[in-house]
Amino acid sequence: MIDLDWKPARQPERISLEGVSVTLEPVDPSRHARALYAAADGAPSIWDYLPYGPFENREMFTDWLEARAASDDPLFFSVVDKAAGSARGMASYMRMAPEHGVIEIGHIWFAPVLQRTRQATEAIYLLARHAFDDLGYRRLEWKCDSLNEPSKRAAERFGFVYEGVFRQHMVIKGRNRDTAWYAMTDGDWPLRRAAFEAWLAPDNFNSAGRQRLSLTAIRSELAEGQSRTSTA
């Protein structure tokens, strides 16, 4: 048995995670409820694979958000688009086991205007960077309904590794859920971090704001470079 030169991770605190295009702020219904409800209004598919929603009105949504704001695990954040100056999505840390160095990101939903944007990618980067670099976790998990193809594609794009399916894992909204598991380890993270940072760099976008290289392509190039270096 090999002893680990590792200390237990720290529990996330209610602090803001500051990025270039987004800030992840601990959920505050008084500040975020109106903007979040407006951002999700008219897009019921956001809630298809989540255990809650859609909400009939803003009052019901605000009541739900107040319960989320009181939770420590999951610990919910609002994704605030800096350019727009308003919250346009949510994400959380959850299923925290600092003694084992394991944490999950989940309850992720982005308004249509935030989906597939630089801001959305930076939000995931900020969560991963904080978990590994600041809090000292060894393993970051991503789980989703096995039928949720967009979430599975997103996990793979971000660099999470597919680990299999837990069959009949949950019952969500009266339906069976088989859960697809993905994870990223602290050993994976340096390459993923470099790829995130290269993709988010201003020179990776043209004057129309379109990416020059995809995140997957950048990560592959970096991995090939590391491989060449190690075999030289």
Walkthrough of the structure:
The structure is a single chain. By secondary structure, this protein is an alpha+beta fold. It has a single domain, classed as Gcn5-related N-acetyltransferase (GNAT) (Aminopeptidase), CATH 3.40.630. The chain contains six helices and eight strands. It has helices at 29-40, 58-69, 118-134, 149-158, 189-200, 215-231, and strands at 17-18, 22-26, 75-81, 86-97, 102-110, 139-145, 161-172, 175-185. It has an eight-stranded mixed beta sheet, sandwiched between helices. Strand 3 and strand 4 form a beta hairpin. Helix 3 (118-134) runs antiparallel to helix 5 (189-200) and helix 5 packs across helix 6. The two termini are 32 Å apart. The model has no long low-confidence stretch (mean pLDDT 95).
Quickly describe the structure.
The protein is α+β, with helices and mostly antiparallel strands.
Structure keywords:
232 residues, Aminopeptidase, 6 helices, alpha+beta, 8 strands, 8-stranded mixed beta sheet
- Shape-level CATH architecture: 3-Layer(aba) Sandwich
Mean pLDDT level? 95
Supply the number of structural domains.
Answer: 1
CATH superfamily: Gcn5-related N-acetyltransferase (GNAT)
Give helix and strand order, one letter per element, not per position.
EEHHEEEHEHEEHH
CA radius of gyration: 18 Å
Strand order of the largest sheet: 1-2-3-4-5-6-8-7
Share in helix: 25-40%
Count of separate DSSP helical elements: 6
Number of strands: 8
Q: How would you characterize the largest beta sheet?
A: 8 strands, mixed
Shape: globular
Per the CATH scheme, the topology name is Aminopeptidase
- Category from helices, strands and their pairing: alpha+beta
**Termini gap:** 32 Å
Low-pLDDT parts are: none
